[in-house]
Amino acid sequence: MRMTATLGAGLLALLAATVCRAALPVYLETPPDQKPRVVITADPELDDSNSLVRYLLFSNGYRTEGLIYASSQFHWMGDGKGTKWFVEGREYTRFGLTDVCPCTSWRWNSKERFIDDAVETYARAYPNLRVHDRSFPTPEYLKSKIRWGNVQFDGDFSKDTAGSNLIKALLLDNEESPIYLHAWGGQSTIARALKSIEDQYRGTSKWRAIRAKVIRKAVIHPSGDQDDTYARYIKPNWPEIRYRQLAGSMMLGYNAQSLVSEDDAAWFSADWTRRNISEKGPLGAFYRVWGDGRQMVRGDIFDYIGMSAGKSAEQLKAEGYVVWTPPHETGSFAGEGDTGTFLNLVDNGLRGFSGESFGGWGGYAGSGAPAPRLRGRAPTHRFLAAAQRSFANRFIWATTPVFAEANHEPHLDARSPHRVVARPGETVNLRVKARDPDKDFVAVRWWRWNEVDSYSGAVPLSRVEGSTTSLRVPADARAGMTIHVIAEATDNGVPALTRYARFVVRVR
């Protein structure tokens, strides 16, 4: 204390700043030459199953480290011993089902295996997929990554499971790259992994280093907090762990066709879905649509989507269903509410996973606050058409054994550094070269991604078409600000496919 009293104010400020900088977490990002490492935790919801189909069709772009059965407030298995469970405010109380719970399980098929079924269906498509890209993972590899997580009760993470142990091992391994933990249901399995690490190491000489390592590696991509475990355990005890609740993602959840713009709604119609998905091989048949006659759990009064063919909401209610979203045309898009969590991992050149606020098909880092309730229909989404064309093309790959009989994404090579440091007033020249494996014509356009920039003013580009463009760093741009410029290359194949290159200008 006596030493502190003798220090000058300037030195004290410097020391304080140094301490603060030292206290900031160190985060890992996936190296440019590596694929992101991904764990999927999913509950047996129709839209989780659909999201898994899309995930598998793009699985050549990332390293799948885990496919884990999970519970949520909407689906939990029970312990098979007659133990009853109840959490206030869940759907069984919100919809007035006061005589149903406490209950021994909730909306869970006793023989549930939707992840196994999806991977086995992928196995039937794999020989064709491999023709178009040899880096698709083998079905055997994916099967080896399937685990059961904390599925017994809503929000219960009191016990270790095979799924939580897998996550724990990944967070503690010696690879210096992040683990992207996708929570399509609840986060209890992730919470259990973290709690097991805490229980094992807290109070030991290793705890400080182990805790820093986990914080450095873990990135949680939630599809909402579906069991309260993030709020109850993860956030209070691991507040530094990155929690990427994204904004600006394309709408792919239930009732998307009614919420998107009228132009975008065409991507969810019965006609488009039938031609591009449902009629395209085993994975297309596996993909759930309105009125397909199937249920995840037989007799589930909340799962009427497959049972809706030709029926109105009133008719469904008369049959005993709880109608929580309006029925749509038979054969039309049913839902992929969890897809937005991994779209930034898709290998399209945007590398949306490589920075906290980079952004990609899945949107960009928001404030963490809940998205405002949509009033009216959303505007046309910048990436939806490209994402849906790419999705449709993957079904073509899955059913086409000849490379030349399908379209493939163009290549877009950056001929300028992806990251540029420049002073205000300085001109930055950018250049790309497009080529196409199918010899298609490729058109290149340039645009600035304002939403992910830290500089908010106008930044005109010298050209918006062609292989080159340039910009002048604005005079009022401050040091550390960023300007993101996107080169977008689209071929003239069927369906037309798009590839991107991102350039980030950081102001010096």
Order of helices and strands: HHEHEHHHEHEHHEHEEHHHHEHEEEEEEE
Radius of gyration: 24 Å
| Record field, number of beta strands | 15
**According to CATH, what is the topology of the largest domain?**
Inosine-uridine Nucleoside N-ribohydrolase, Chain A
Chain-averaged pLDDT: 93
Judging from the principal axes of the Cα atoms, what is the shape?
globular
Assign the CATH superfamily of the largest domain. Answer: Ribonucleoside hydrolase-like
Helical residue percent band: 25-40%
Unreliable stretches (pLDDT < 50, length at least 5) are 1-22, 367-371
Give a description of the structure.
With 508 residues, the protein is an alpha/beta fold. The protein has two domains: 28-290 and 328-406, Ribonucleoside hydrolase-like (Inosine-uridine Nucleoside N-ribohydrolase, Chain A), CATH 3.90.245; 407-507, Sandwich (Immunoglobulin-like). It has 15 helices and 15 strands. The strands form four sheets. A six-stranded parallel beta sheet has the order 3-2-1-4-5-6. Strands 10-15-14-12 form a four-stranded mixed beta sheet, with no helix packed on it. α3 runs parallel beside α5 (114-132), α5 (114-132) packs across α15 (384-399) and α8 runs antiparallel to α9. Residues 1-22 and 367-371 have low confidence and may be disordered.
Quick structural overview:
This protein has 15 helices and 15 strands. The chain has 508 residues and is of the alpha/beta class. The model is unreliable at 1-22 and 367-371 (pLDDT under 50).
What is this structure's SSE topology?
Blueprint: H1 2-6, H2 9-23, E1 37-42, H3 46-57, E2 63-69, H4 91-94, H5 114-132, H6 139-144, E3 146-148, H7 162-172, E4 179-183, H8 188-201, H9 207-217, E5 218-222, H10 229-237, E6 242-243, E7 246-247, H11 256-259, H12 270-278, H13 281-286, H14 313-318, E8 364-365, H15 384-399, E9 411-414, E10 419-422, E11 427-435, E12 442-448, E13 468-472, E14 482-491, E15 498-507
Helix pairs in contact: 3-5, 5-15, 7-8, 8-9, 8-10
